[in-house]
Amino acid sequence: xxTFKGGIHPxxxxxLVKDNPIxxxxxxxxxxxxxxxxxxxxxxxxxxxxxEVKKGQVLSEPLxxxxxxxxxxxxGRVKEIGRIVHPVTGxxxxxIVIDADGRDEWAxxxxxxxxxxxxxxxxxxxxxxxxxxxxxxGATFPTHxxxxxxxDKTIDTFIVNGAECxxxxxxxxxxxxxxxxxxxxxxxxxxxxxxxxxxxxxxxxNKPDAIKLMREKAPAEIQVETLKVKYPQGAEKQxxxxxxxxxxxxxxxxxxxGAVVQNAxxxxxxxxxxARGIPLIERITSVTGRGIVQPKxxxxxxxxxxxxxxxxxxxxxxxxxxxxxxxxxxIAQFTQDIAIMKGTSGVLVLREEDTNITAxxxxxxxxxxxxxxxxxxxxxxxxxxxxxxxxxxxxENNLLDCVECGSCTYVxxxxxxxxxxxxxxxxxxxxxxxxx
Amino acid sequence: xxxxxxxxxxEDQAKEQASKLSVYVSSSPHVHSTExxxxxxxxxxxxxxPGALVGVYFFGxxxxxxxxxxxxxxxxxxxxxxKLTGNPITIKDGSAVLTGLLLAMNLPSGAPWWLxxxxxxxxxxxxxxxxxxxxxxxxxxxxxxxxxxxxxxPVAMTTWPEPRSFFSQAADATTGxxxxxxxxxxxxxxxTIAAAPGMNLMDPFLGNVGGSLGEISALALILGGxxxxxxxxxxxxxxxxxxxxxxxxxxxxxxxxxxxxxSPAFHLVAGGLMLGAFFMATDMVTSPITNTGxxxxxxxCGVITVVIRxxxxxxxxxxxxxxxxxxxxxxxxxxxxPTKFGAVR
Lengths: 436, 345
Hints:
Number of domains of chain A: 3
Structural class of chain A: alpha/beta
Structural class of chain B: mainly alpha
Strand content of chain B: under 5%
Strand order of the largest sheet of chain B: 1-2
Number of strands of chain B: 2
Largest sheet of chain A: 6 strands, mixed
Number of strands of chain A: 16
Order of helices and strands of chain A: EEEEEEEHHEHHEHEHEHEEHEEEHHHHH
CATH class of the largest domain in chain A: Alpha Beta
Radius of gyration of chain A: 21 Å
Radius of gyration of chain B: 25 Å
Oligomer: heterodimer
Shape of chain A: globular
Strand order of the largest sheet of chain A: 1-13-12-16-14-15
């Protein structure tokens, strides 16, 4: 079975939610659509308070190539261009508040019917950008940019990432089980956009039903690969390494080794965008963990408040941590008044006994972090430098190669918050280079 | 269609309650392995129990007293020092217990109480706390304590009670030599190993020999070592390479001159090699962090051990070898840094 060097095997905990079919989250009365839901250049609102909007209507205009618009999740009236806590930064960020009119009417001409395989590469990329598609595994990098490699890069490998290596989460798993056609057809569209005649869909061995179904449904040109269950198997660089043996060079991108990786959910969104003109206004999210009363997989609109999502899943039960994303790389939230985003692959609620809130102690040089690090760094050294804020020394120790997967921190017997130190050091080095 | 955000007093009150959300906010990851420092220390202590029991079996109640005193004095000294210096008291991490146990296992069973207390003081205060406590000590604390005692109180440290069955400990204990000591004397006085008494392998393998109370049984120590490897507390690199280096070097010399040198099998089972290779050289704080580094470190320990045993002034060289190699750990770590993923090779 294919895999990479290093990594860890935390308890999978997928049993809480993996067998729960996707349920539709009901229409809310109000949505908070963050303007910045992608990695890259900002976007600018193009609606104002009082405007009537229809479902799927453009709400913002991308400023730059590496940027995407957001769209109205339902029909209604723009209440205001307000501010809401951004789940990634924890700071107040602009959002477009929409009061739903309950009619949920599509914008004119949507959804449309067209054959993406009759479209040109440029038309496809434009459709993907216009629909605001970003990487839905959590990184939220604009998809059209990943599909537009510079001329000097030859792409020969396209991988659909169905690994879903984060413990607890099952949103990609349910998507592949319940809507395999959307994933496979979307993969086909991306192959066309990349000019490739084959692709690989990679799934961790703990989802045998999805592997079996994909093998049945996949056309001959899409190969299904089983991956060893190991975290972070779905991290882009590790996934490429496991499947092709290639190493994305330090500081480089997957395209430097001829590879493009797209999450299974992104493929489905690409299909909707290209075949039906439907923008990315909803996604599948696992709401799970032992701190939520009824774990569910929901199809939820972007802009839905976390508070409503928690209510819909029976409320909290001894919640000690509320996380957007998975337990390894997700972001802890301090309020329920935040909105679901395009990249919210999961809402995880942990009780005190499921999480880790004890103090840390001195490094005992056991070397477990070195064994676990998929980037083959020495995390213990970075953590000691992080304690002292020595970012220059840390950069000599490959600080910027750290992908913050959390494997080192998971295994550290001294409970050292190594990822926290790394983030701190990276912030210090960014601040220093900004000053220059 | 249910209107979730509708306003009614009961719901508002519930919201008010819920908005007083009290949760932890910290960097990812949010889950953690259950294997923490106290757990690791406990595993090492469990792994030492067979060796300690054999010591108590052959040396009786005095051995048990030495173990108890060393453990208690190490823990008390750490707590006292931390209290006096105003630092958090960390005795719950189990490392002081382990240092005490390891120190005791490196002492003769007849060690007087003051010897044990001085050894604990040197191990905990000088070798560990003065360097900054757990994680910051460059040298193995128990070995620093032992070597300090060996140099300062050579007579008390080399008075070895003879092993006897636990159930026949009526009369006063007699003292004798360790196998390696007898070997050194034979070579020194007669120039040949043939003059050394009792060169059989089974007694030191099982533990029926003179020596430090925890080093006598190779079998019990190997069992503990296998437990540590199976539990993934240590990797095979240090013990296997250390033992293999000693076997190869003594093997070559033995093949060349079997009259002048003892067999490699004898060198493996006699003395403190097993205790050193599985429990002392593998101390995480004072050994290299990468597996390549561990191999280099262990080979160095093996070479120095053999050199001291064969040509040095002391019959045994394990403690010195490990301490000398401890000093090289920062250099070894620097020289054996892994090549990062995606490095231009």
